[in-house]
Write a structure and sequence with these properties.
The protein is mainly beta. The protein has strands at 4-7, 10-13, 18-24, 33-39, 46-51, 57-59, 67-72, 77-82, 91-98, 108-109, 113-118. Helix content is 0%, strand content 50%.
Length: 119
């Protein structure tokens, strides 16, 4: 069983920055693929970014160049540094863990943290 707890969400003006964190419980974190997803009101959940255990990263086109995903295996934590935020980035952000190391299959999800970007 893996528990994921997100933090760092909040209200920010357009053009501002936020850093989200996701702390994972349990052993084996360094072998997991980890991802960030988001869901805006009335929309489906969408992929934001992912990081393999090797450190290779992937981004949605909508956030490329503005968001950076990283991981600290010593702290069992991943981060999402978000810059140049736009109102359309407003959503609940979720982190997810892929125990098999694949960025296309996630087994555990956090409860989410709200990010609101005002114009």
């Amino acid at each position: 069983q893996v528990q994921l707890v997100e933090s760092g969400g909040g209200l920010v003006q357009a053009g501002g920055s936020l850093r989200l964190s996701c702390a994972a419980s349990g052993r084996g974190f360094s072998t997991y693929a980890m991802g960030w997803f988001r869901q805006a009101p009335g929309k489906e959940r969408e992929f934001v970014a992912a990081i393999r255990r090797s450190g290779i990263t992937y981004y949605a086109d909508s956030v490329k160049g503005r968001f950076t995903i990283s991981r600290d295996n010593a702290k069992n934590t991943i981060y999402l540094q978000m810059t140049t935020l736009k109102p359309e980035d407003t959503a609940v952000y979720y982190c997810a863990a892929g125990l098999k190391g694949s960025t296309s299959e996630y087994n555990y999800w956090g409860q989410g943290t709200q990010v609101t970007v005002s114009s």
